[in-house]
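Notebook, student rotation project (T.W.).
Task set for the rotation: take a protein with a known small-molecule partner, predict the structure of the complex, and write up what can be learned from the model alone. Partner molecule chosen: flavin-adenine dinucleotide. Sequence and SMILES entered below by T.W., checked by me.
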Amino acid sequence: MNLVPQTHSTESVAKDLAAVVPPHTLIADTETQVVYECDGLAMYKQPPMITVLPESVEQVQAVMRYAHQSGIPVVARGGGTGLCAGAMPHAEGILLSLAKFNQIQHIDPLARTAVVQPGVRNLAISEAAKIHNLYYAPDPSSQIACTIGGNVAENAGGVHCLKYGLTVNNVIKVEMITIEGDEVVIGSEGLDSAGPDLLALMHGSEGLLGVITEITVKLMPIPERMQVVMAAFDDVTKAGNAVGAVIAKGIIPGGLEMMDHFAIVAVEEYLQAGYPTEAQALLLCEVDGTPAEVEEHIAAVTQVFEQMGATSVRISQSEEERQLFWKGRKNAFPAVGRLSPDYYCMDGTIPRSQLANVLLKMAEMSERYGLRVANVFHAGDGNLHPLILFDANIEGQFETTEEFGGKILELCVEVGGCITGEHGVGMEKIRQMFTQFSETELTQFHAIKAAFDSANQLNPGKGIPVLKNCQEYRSVGGA
Amino acid sequence: MKQLIDQVKTAISEGKTLRIEGGNSKAHIGRATECSETLSLRDHTGIAPYNPVELVMTTKAGTTIAEINAELAKHGQFLPAECPDFDGSATIGGTLAANCNGAGRPFRGALRDLVLGCYLINGKGEHLRFGGTVLKNVAGYDVSRLQSGAMGTLGVIEEVSFKVLPRPAMEITVSKTCSAEDAITTMNKLAAGSTPLSASAWVNGTLYLRLAGAKTAVEAAMAQLAMREEDAEVWASLNTLWQDCATEGRYRLSVKSTAAPSGHAQIINWGGAERWVSSDATLAQMQQAAAKMGGEARWIGAAREDEVNPALPDALKALHKRLKQSIDPRGVFNPGRLYSWN
Ligand SMILES: Cc1cc2nc3c(=O)[nH]c(=O)nc-3n(C[C@H](O)[C@H](O)[C@H](O)COP(=O)(O)OP(=O)(O)OC[C@H]3O[C@@H](n4cnc5c(N)ncnc54)[C@H](O)[C@@H]3O)c2cc1C
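Predicted structure of the complex:
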């Protein structure tokens, strides 16, 4: 892909932009822009040339038209919680923050939909829908801070996606601005539209195809009752098998999460969720539905866990206790993060039957690289989050960590899985794209990108690797 | 597979066009097209070794929905999209391409929601893999789901991986006589509450509801609704609407579930979101009505020269054209099947 030539000074761009959007929407000074230099993956940093915080769709269009005419890259930014450096700015580009698009425009309780602006926080939708006894199902652990626009761009998941799906399964319509500044409506208030599924294509497209300015999401009725079974195991293989056994029973839990010993201990020290610290693996299994249904399923799940060798089984006895069980899981990243100056979160997926094998190999690698790993796992859908602990102040340790992380992802692909289940590729996993895809496949991706953005101005350098780097990356990978 | 790729490559080099065909059950869906030859996937069948607890199945594109259903049933599982099987002739590839889904769609998702990955032969004759065979994968653009609704214009679907689910422990159909307006209100109100619905439809003055889930939940809901029990026949008959349109064309409206019924003779499915309308109106007229209902109208009936899908705004149309170009630069696959201009 052509790199955009650097022919613009910040001053001239600021001046040009001030002619098309109100000056107070622009930030051009270095200090104020520091907050935008990275997303949730802080190891990757790059201040933008200029930041714009538009307040209307017309302003987004004006910025896009200007950028398009001038050949300036545009990087969209939601909550900045991404974990793949997808929202990391471009040195010669405009950082387009959707932070001011924070309005829930309309909730239709009978049709169970909400029309929201992209900068609305994920959790805010459920909070607003609550009076109608509805909620928005996908719940990434970052839900207090991440935005629905970023969720669409990453096709975010969460702890409830085995039963309720990812973002792509819960959005029916988006409005987006193309790099030319045109407004395009994709999807409708119905459940499908004629022609290829562009709505699906937009999900997980990481800001490379357009800037999303409005989203219509589906809302679900809040289950009458939710209860969590927490089961401890003295062996991860047993816990892995127990997950399969629940599903074999014909039960699809609302959430089914696993943590390894390291993560359990870290969480318990951090916030005393009542986790059994002697366990080698912990399963949290939430069932939801009508009270009668929940009762039936709780009994079945408990029985399965006991049969599969659980050393202890606890059932949440109140809403507070259920929240407490989840609080531990949802705070697993910061809890593990406390044990080390820095941590690096991976996001591979595997067939569930490979769990024990992958954990074992990971433990061997951990030994070899001399870096500790904690594992939290969306066990129901095979999405692993190994957290590698390191210290960025030790020279070369981040590089070692990255190499270790890369090896974990390659292992996931080797056993039939993928390099990312929900965090996206961004800048971070660009090398591993060569592990998962062939050059012809990557070329096809570039062709699709060009159909939306022929000059490669939208979030350039992210998501899909440039082919000329292929040989270099493959040989590094093989070393 | 080599045969398929060879046929595509030969077509490209000879400047031919290909009509992609699975079971040919959906010849009436989409526009009438003239292609130099047929690329058949009818014999390109087979289910890869399948481990039920993984909740994933992978099959060659020519495998029929009927075969898939039969294999899943052996393990107490099913394809939640309940795709119409067209008397056994519909294939998984054609079903995905036509985005053809059954009554459970609003509650359990469409085939596009279940698709995890696919192998595709693009318009350069390249065999490409997208997505994966695990439940989550966000690397690269979602070219697998993109195929849904593309009617084969964006390449030959060669293999598909999709999510499957355990069958609910119990499923019961109930009904009551009521007007279309009342049916729409009831369907939506129930869906917004805790009733364990898995389908709802209104046919010939009767509202049908299907309850699914744990035995206790279904029984409690039945007691609460106090409606008459029915056999499940109605859901199968709704599925055959797609097929029936070959002889008696209809408009299919995909609209907001709460939209008031249009004045036409119609069948309402998908909790209000799908409406099958028999009318002499033109597509443009029907589209105007559907747009007011928050959605769109398509013609499903004997293949014709005229457009069968609604007109698109310029910017979106341009995107569709460039997307087609990006995957099938020479326009080898199903030219004109979706739109006269693509
Ligand atoms: C502690 C923690 C826990 C997390 N847990 C989860 C989890 O459970 N599941 C999960 O899926 N993710 C998780 N994440 C990752 C992250 O929260 C998600 O990827 C989220 O979707 C990012 O949203 P954001 O608004 O912060 O987007 P950003 O980080 O701002 O941007 C992400 C990407 O989206 C693009 N983008 C943003 N807005 C738009 C727009 N309007 N139009 C076009 N492109 C846009 C950006 O260019 C970028 O490529 C976690 C992150 C943290 C820090």
